[in-house]
Amino acid sequence: MSATLVFIITGFWIWMLTDCSQDKSTRSNWFWIVLFGYFPGALVYFIDRQSTSQSRKIINPLRRIQLQQELHRAKIAAKHIGKAYQFLILGNILLELGDLDRAELAYQRALIKEPKNPYALWGAASVAFDRERFAVAALHLELLLKIDPKHLQGDASLLYAKVLFNLSKWSIARLHLTEDIYC
Fold this sequence. Notes:
Blueprint: H1 3-22, H2 27-52, H3 61-80, H4 84-97, H5 100-113, H6 118-130, H7 134-147, H8 155-166, H9 170-182
Helix pairs in contact: 1-2, 3-4, 4-5, 4-6, 5-6, 6-7, 7-8, 8-9
């Protein structure tokens, strides 16, 4: 093995070791795997971090194939059964695939069928937030929080605060968060 390759591998190993030692959520388990696993351990850690990173919406190729199959079944179910649930499932798959236009349509169809479906409201609000349509997201989230104030263990409430912040309604966002924390 050439000295350059050893240098690159060692540098990568040190980079991954440093990264996992700074991340409090993975420190205990991954640190030992990377430390004793050298390059293979560092490579596995890197792949795991990339696949679970929320800042990057990278879908594993095998998951993409699975989602395409699920998408086909969901389209058929939505077309033939046509209940809110089928459109909700279709919207969730499309959202995971990153197809925001069609996900938005699926959630809208679900809301036409069941205007107070909390999961359809959550999906529609999530798409609106991702597309920076904060006023639309606020409408969906306000209704959702009336129906289920602790939806998804408070994720809806947190997203509502983010929406208010993006709408420059800082005092309302602060009041909302204060009430949410102390209630």
